[in-house]
Design goal:
This protein is of the alpha/beta class. It has 6 helices and 12 strands.
Length: 188
Amino acid sequence: MKKIAVLALQGAFIEHEQRLRELGAEVVEIRRLADWHQPKDGLILPGGESTVMLKLLYDLHLFHPIQEAIQKGLPTFGTCAGLILLAKQVENEPARRLGTMDITVRRNAYGRQLGSFHTFAAMKNIGENIPMTFIRAPYISEARPNVDLLSIVEGHIVAARQENQLVTAFHPELDTDASVHRYFLQMI
């Protein structure tokens, strides 16, 4: 059984845990540094507020251990805010992120809460009709050649993979379809 660590500081972490358990994975919540030292096969960085998460990662001394584990190959899945945390660059923001994925991100790219929407689109290696819920979502505005683009919606990159890292601008945990989480577990 695969054991997945879920960053449980803020955001939609409970929904990720539900999807993982439905697929037979064991879940461990990461709330403090002591939690991080448990054995794990993968990590999920959920949606939420990336600025708050980043501050908490520093305050709780989780930033560097998580960054190092990802750089050493820990399979990691970032959704929405998690995508922003993994990006090497965020447009018009100098703030430091985990910066482990060769992408540039545009925050709140679809506008504020009222710009949220739901659609169905193809996702490479997963399927043709994947439900996608976007809430104050970012998108990937630029990806280096070593990044595999997995889904494009309305001309914008909304899912990508780089080696051990998977990111989505949408929230697959908010839909009952567990195919994106299944794909992540297959990466491990």
